[in-house]
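Example 9 (inverse folding). The structure is encoded as follows.
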C-alpha cells in the first residue's frame, strides 16, 4: 500500500493603517492509496479502504471510499456451500452405505458359515482318522485270529496223527473221534461267527468312511461356492461405491467450476470499478493541487490591488495559523503574528 503525504503553508498579511490583512493557512493532507490482494483460486480477495485526511485552519473533512461487503458475504456463502459439498463427497449417499452394510453382513454370514463348515470338516477328518485306526486294528485282529485258527487246525491234525501212530491197537475209539470232530466243528463255528462279526464291522466302517468322504466333498464344494459368492459381492460393492463416488465427484466439479467462473467475473467487475475509482480520485487530486497552487497567487494579487488603492503607507500584519486536523478533529494548533510598517 502506497502512502503519499503533502503539506503546504500559506500566509496572508494585514496592516492597521491600510487595513490590509494577510492570513497564513497551513494545510496538510495524507493520501492513502487502496490496495487489492487476492487469495489462491480467486478466494479471499480483500480490498483495503481509501481514506483521505486533511489538516488546515478550516476542516476539509475526511472522505472514505468503502467497498460494499456484498461480495464478501457472497464469497462466505459460497465457501459454506463448498464445505457442505465436500462433506457430502466424503460421506457416501445412504443407499450406497446400506448396500455396503448389507454386503458386509452377507460377507460376515458367509465367513461364519465357512468357519462352521471348517470346524465340521476338522471333526469329520478326526473321526475318519480314528475310524481308520480302528479298521487297521480290526484287520490286525482278523489276521491274527485267522493265523491262530490255522495254527489250531494244524495242531489238532498233528495230535490226531500222533494218536493214530501211537495206538497199535486196531480198536477204534469212536467216542474220542466224535468228540474231536465236534470240538473242531464248534471251533470252526466260533471262528466263522467271529469272522462274520469282523467283516460286518469292517463293512460298517467302510460305509461310514465313504459317507464321511462324501460329506467332506460336499462341504468343500459349498465352501468354494460361498467363496465365489463373497468375491462377486465384494466386486459389486466396490464397483457401486466407485461409480457413486465418481458421479458425485463429476457433479461437484461441475458445480464448483460454474461457481468459480461466477466469482472470477465478479472479481473482474470489482477490479474494473476499482481502477475507475482510482482514476477519478487521481483526477480530483490533480484538480485540488492546481487550486491550492492558484490560491496564493490570487491572494497576492488582491493584496497588491488593495495596497495600490489605499496608499503607500501601511502597516503589514502577518498572522500564521497552523492547525492539524485528522478526521474532523484538531490535533494541534499554532499561531504566529508579525507586524511590519511599510512606507
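The amino acid assigned to each position is listed next.
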Amino acid at each position: 500500500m502506497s502512502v503519499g503525504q503533502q503539506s503546504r503553508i500559506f500566509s496572508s498579511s494585514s496592516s492597521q493603517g491600510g487595513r490590509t490583512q494577510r492570513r497564513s493557512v497551513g494545510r496538510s493532507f495524507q493520501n492513502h492509496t487502496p490496495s487489492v490482494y487476492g487469495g489462491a483460486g480467486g478466494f479471499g480477495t480483500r480490498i483495503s479502504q481509501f481514506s483521505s485526511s486533511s489538516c488546515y485552519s478550516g476542516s476539509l473533512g475526511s472522505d472514505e471510499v468503502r467497498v460494499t461487503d456484498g461480495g464478501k458475504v457472497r464469497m462466505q456463502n459460497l465457501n459454506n456451500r463448498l464445505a457442505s459439498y465436500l462433506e457430502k463427497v466424503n460421506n457416501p449417499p445412504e443407499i450406497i452405505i446400506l448396500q455396503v452394510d448389507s454386503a458386509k453382513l452377507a460377507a460376515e454370514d458367509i465367513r461364519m458359515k465357512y468357519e462352521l463348515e471348517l470346524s465340521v470338516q476338522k471333526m469329520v477328518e478326526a473321526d475318519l482318522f480314528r475310524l481308520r485306526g480302528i479298521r487297521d486294528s480290526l484287520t490286525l485282529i482278523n489276521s491274527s485270529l485267522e493265523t491262530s485258527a490255522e495254527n489250531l487246525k494244524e495242531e489238532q491234525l498233528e495230535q490226531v496223527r500222533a494218536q493214530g501212530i501211537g495206538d497199535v491197537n486196531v480198536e477204534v475209539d469212536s467216542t474220542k473221534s466224535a468228540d474231536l470232530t465236534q470240538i473242531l466243528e464248534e471251533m470252526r463255528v466260533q471262528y466263522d461267527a467271529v469272522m462274520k462279526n469282523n467283516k460286518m464291522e469292517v463293512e460298517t466302517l467302510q460305509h461310514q468312511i465313504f459317507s464321511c468322504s462324501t460329506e467332506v466333498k460336499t462341504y468343500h464344494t459349498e465352501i468354494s461356492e460361498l467363496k465365489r459368492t463373497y468375491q462377486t459381492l465384494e466386486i459389486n460393492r466396490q464397483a457401486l461405491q466407485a461409480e457413486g463416488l465418481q458421479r458425485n465427484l463429476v457433479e461437484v466439479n461441475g458445480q464448483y467450476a460454474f461457481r468459480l467462473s461466477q466469482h472470477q467475473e465478479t472479481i473482474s467487475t470489482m477490479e474494473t470499478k476499482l481502477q475507475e475509482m482510482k482514476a477519478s480520485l487521481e483526477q480530483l487530486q490533480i484538480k485540488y493541487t492546481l487550486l491550492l497552487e492558484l490560491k496564493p497567487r490570487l491572494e497576492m494579487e488582491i493584496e497588491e490591488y488593495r495596497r495600490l488603492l489605499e496608499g503607500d503607507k501601511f502597516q503589514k500584519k502577518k498572522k500564521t495559523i497552523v492547525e492539524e486536523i485528522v478526521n474532523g478533529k484538531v490535533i494541534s494548533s499554532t499561531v504566529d503574528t508579525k507586524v511590519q510598517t511599510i512606507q
